[in-house]
Amino acid sequence: MLQVAGFLDNSTVNGKGLRSVLFVSGCKHNCIGCHNKDMQNFNYGDKVSLDYIFNRIQHNVPLISGVTFSGGEPFEQAEQLTILAKKIKDEDLNLWCYTGYTYEEILRSNDKHKLNLLKHIDVLIDGKFNKSLKEDVPKYVGSTNQRIINVKESLKSEKIIIL
Ligand code: SF4
User: Fold this and answer.
1) Alpha carbons 26 and 13: distance in angstroms, whole number
2) pLDDT given at position 17
3) Which residues contact 65 (CB under 8 A, 6 or more apart)?
4) Ligand 1 centroid, distance to 143 Cα (angstroms)
5) Residue 158, C-beta contacts closer than 8 angstroms, at least 6 positions apart
6) Whose CA is nearest to atom 8 of ligand 1?
7) 74, 34 contact by CB (below 8 A)
8) Residue of the CA atom closest to atom 7 of ligand 1
9) 36 lines ligand 1 (CB under 6 A)
10) Domain positions in the chain
11) Residue 128's closest CA among 155, 86, 100?
């Protein structure tokens, strides 16, 4: 089961192309100017089964090109989201994920669930939101410190490859 704050069947603003977006509940980053403050609460929203979410995603195929995990902090529910991520990849959908952790923090975490989730993600938008850096932001990020990372290429080359 996942603690879910919201779900969008079709969105064009949470990653490239038309995408379904899953917002999970719970986040400890406490960014100043957080735009999803309600979703910081780990009890916000509803407990939802992975099967229900996956069926919702499948309903949007072939309209969507991918799925985005957002929140809240997806990496706080990494074990459950990895199961869902595998199913999404088996559907040939690309997977984007927003996180308040940096790519380096996830790699250094030594948390097997976080590392497993990372391996299933195609594109990671990383780092805490910084409201003093929100002018002139590129598409899909909230503040200019955040990066749009090609995860597969970054893991392969052991350096960060920006999309
Ligand atoms: S990571 Fe996102 S949800 Fe968490 S505090 Fe920062 S802006 Fe809010």
Assistant:
1) 22
2) 97
3) 16, 17, 18, 19, 93, 94
4) 12
5) none
6) 34
7) no
8) 34
9) yes
10) 2-157
11) 100
Instruction: Kindly provide the b/e burial profile for residues 15-34, where b requires at least 16 CB atoms within 10 angstroms of the residue's own CB.
Output: bbeebbbbbbbbbebebeeb
Q: Which CATH number describes the domain made up of 2-157?
A: 3.20.20.70
- State the Cα–Cα distance between residues 14 and 93, nearest whole angstrom: 15
pLDDT at 86: 98
Helix boundaries (H) for 96-138: 103-108, 112-120
Whether the pLDDT of residue 35 is over 90: the answer is no
The predicted-structure confidence for 91-149, as pLDDT tens digits, reads as follows: 999 999 999 999 999 999 999 999 999 999 999 999 999 999 999 999 999 999 999 99
Task: Look up residue 98 and give its two tokens.
Answer: 């927003």
